[in-house]
């Protein structure tokens, strides 16, 4: 009786690469601005998509630090609550923020904010809609 034994070469163990917070932020920001899927971006960086989703959560919670990318200032028009005319910005001393209403018009959509808002979340929304 002949016995045939087949041997296959074992694949070498995959070495995991440790990502710096800057690299994680860059990958997350790419998922928020590129229009590509998270899975596609994860594959291009040789990262599991679930890991990228975890980094996105950390990013939105402010746990990946601050991005070193330049922030662009957006033009702002201040309107009186009951008037449609553009008002001059106040020149008096700065006071504590008062919850109110805000409407931000961006190329890819409008943002309506009422009351207090998490600034990190608002920043991410504006970055996504800025176009």
Percent in helix: 25-40%
Structural class, from helix and strand content?
alpha+beta
- Major sheet, described briefly? 2 strands, antiparallel
Taking all Cα atoms into account, the compactness measure Rg is 24 Å
General form? elongated
Query: pLDDT average, as an integer?
Result: 75
**Tally of strands:** 4
N-to-C order of helices and strands:
HHHEEEEH
Low-confidence stretches: 83-92
Please work out how many helical segments DSSP would assign.
4
Straight-line N-to-C gap: 71 Å
Residue share in β-strands:
5-15%
Q: Give the spatial strand order of the biggest sheet.
A: 1-2
Family: Belongs to the transposase 8 family.
Organism: Candidatus Paraburkholderia kirkii UZHbot1
Pfam family, one: HTH_Tnp_1
GO molecular function, one term: transposase activity
Characterization of this structure:
GO terms for molecular function: sequence-specific DNA binding; transposase activity. The protein is 33% helix and 12% strand. Among the domains are: 21-60; 78-90 and 99-129, no CATH class. The chain is elongated, with a radius of gyration of 24 Å. With 131 residues, the chain is an alpha+beta fold. Strands 1-2 form a two-stranded antiparallel sheet. A two-stranded antiparallel sheet has the order 3-4.
Task: Provide a concise account of the structure shown.
The chain is an alpha+beta fold and 131 residues long. The chain contains four helices and four strands, in the order H-H-H-E-E-E-E-H. Among the domains are: 40 residues; 44 residues, no CATH class.
Layout: helices, strands, pairs:
Elements: H1 21-33, H2 38-44, H3 49-60, E1 78-79, E2 86-87, E3 101-106, E4 109-114, H4 119-129
Antiparallel strand pairs: 1-2, 3-4
Region (Disordered): 1-23
Family: Belongs to the transposase 8 family.
GO molecular function: sequence-specific DNA binding; transposase activity
């Amino acid at each position: 009786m002949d016995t045939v034994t087949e041997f296959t070469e074992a694949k070498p163990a995959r070495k995991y690469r440790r990502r710096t917070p800057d690299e994680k932020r860059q990958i997350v920001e790419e998922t928020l601005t590129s229009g590509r899927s998270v899975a596609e971006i994860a594959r291009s960086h040789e990262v599991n998509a679930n890991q990228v989703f975890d980094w996105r959560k950390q990013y939105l919670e402010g746990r990946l630090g601050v991005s070193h990318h330049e922030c662009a200032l957006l033009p702002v028009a201040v309107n009186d609550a009951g008037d449609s005319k553009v008002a001059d910005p106040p020149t008096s001393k700065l006071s504590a923020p008062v919850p109110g209403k805000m409407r931000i018009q961006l190329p890819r959509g409008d943002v309506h904010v009422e009351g207090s808002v998490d600034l990190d979340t608002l920043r991410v929304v504006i970055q996504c809609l800025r176009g």
